[in-house]
User: Fold these one by one.
Assistant:
Number 1:
Amino acid sequence: MNLSGILVIVPAETIGEGIARLQALPGVEVYHNDPESGRIVIVQEAKTIDDEVKGLKRIKSLPQVILAEMVYHYFAEDGQLVTKIPQELDDLEGLQHGVVPDYLNDG
């Protein structure tokens, strides 16, 4: 399961239409809106990261959407990636697991 917190901005005078369009999308729930600024906060649920990205692109393409940006992201594969990436980096760059390279330390 993948969750995205997305900020959507539409012209204030069209916020009702924007909310209706967003709520009609699969996996999208509107959590907050500010009619004066046209800001809408949504949560999108998707099965895969690819589906999540496709959903964000679909939101960006809706009529009258000025801006739609992901501000929070949770993906279920996180635990798998965290255990795999350090070992892959160790193999590729000769780094020791758990040791911070000198170039990342403050001078």
Number 2:
Amino acid sequence: MSATPRILYCHCQYAQVLPKDVKEGVLQKLCEADLPFEAVADLCELSARRDPLLKEIATGGPVKIAACFPRAVKWLFSAAGAPLDASSTEICNLRVQPLEAACDALFASTVTPNLPTGKPTA
């Protein structure tokens, strides 16, 4: 993919299911890096409100999303009417990935698509 991937960071403000040290470490490293990124308080809230930002992200080209399980992120975007393109979306699962692995994936210039396929989200 030729376009630089957009980076989206979810702070999981309300469910608080992400390990605090990992989510805060990722946010700190994103702030220190010379890369643009967008931070949202909570993707679940944005999905529930059908926030237009989700559609903008879903249709804006390659994206890397630091959040939780890929299947959950896929369904959150779909529920908001903004299905993600499985061929150009990479989810960094902050629930299970260690800090360094998540940052390595986010800062890589290429996208390694990892959205689950098979079940339609329509």
Number 3:
Amino acid sequence: MEVLKVSSHSNPKSVAGALAAVVRESGLAELQAIGAGAVNQAIKAIAITRGFVAPNGINLVCVPAFSEVEIDGEQRTAIKFIVQPR
């Protein structure tokens, strides 16, 4: 499964384009975000992606979950969004 990392500085439209491409290619993608700003950008990107793929008859759903990641030797809690067609 392709993991796309989103930061608070990510452009939601760019993330949406990448997410749409991954969903069309493999049918399943994961967005990973750490922090409130990154989660905000990820949610915006998912909403935009739904608009991108809807004309192709793809209805996306998103399943949020927590994930533990290691950054610079520290354990951090990330929110991951598993995005797939319904």
Number 4:
Amino acid sequence: MHLKKITLLNFKNFESANFNFDSKINCFVGANGIGKTNILDAVFCLSFTKSYFNSSASQIIKHDADFFVIEGVFDKQEAEEHIVCSLKRGQKKVIKRNGKIYEKVQHHIGLLPVVMISPADIDLIASGSEVRRKFIDSVISQSDRVYLNDLILYNKVISQRNHLLKYFAANHTFDTVNLEVYDDQLIDLGAKIHTKRKTFLEAFIPIFKERYAMISNNKEEVNLVYKSHLENTDIKQLLKDSLAKDRLFQYTTVGVHKDDLLFSIADFPVKKFGSQGQQKSYLIALKLAQFDFIKSQTNDTPILLLDDIFDKLDENRVLQLIRLVNEDNFGQLFISDTHAERTENIIKQINQTYKIFNLS
């Protein structure tokens, strides 16, 4: 699979732009703030129907415009897929596939697999558990639509249960029967989500370790550890034991929405003891493992987006990474960098077709 062309209207800093891509390597070069990352983010939007960097869809509309449109034409299994992602301020986002509007946006997820590697990924290490859960969920969801649907339902039930707990507190009342309606749904959905996350990580962790060894030349031992409230107790018992605490805090304090991943190098937390280079290598290994896992599950080759790849990596490591993704099992590659000459010198060292887009 590869992206043949893209059209942007009022997307971030682009009023109107068109790009035709090489099927292998595409490089966007130019000064900071010129829009290189925005093009990669537009490609991501066509896959995930949302920005990689902005949580609110309205934030990616050009500041003086009322709407944005991203149109992409993909070559997938010798057929064209025409995807349009659009939004008008104050209205619902619209996703079209070959002219037909999706009834539910989540039905599009997984059709066009994409993996982004960006300096913003440091949030996986530096931020709270929610970011790491989203990473797990995004990887699984690209190849498991049932999981995505269960996750959406679970989060909806959590929201409803939390609203009910706040209602009880505000009205100085409590109704066990009403609360158990939500508990029964959480028990079923939470068990399914936990099982699939556990199964996923059993397959994913060895792939991640292998990728890190390749990047670091076997210099350090790394590990991922899955932490969940459901490790030793079933969710029914957890909800029962935490009821008093839930009433006090007015939200659901236990469940798979509190799961986490622990990142370590040589048995020490990456966040505290990993150097910038080690942290960057760790994150790249995570994303390449994501690439490998999605490809193995979907039998489709994801598009790989490398945003500002020279950030915290020297040129030798970048060349090593580019050579790595030059293997036959990789497909289309998008790169952003501030230095055109540096990028082209590295790309010329591998035997692939490429295009360089100078943005000014």
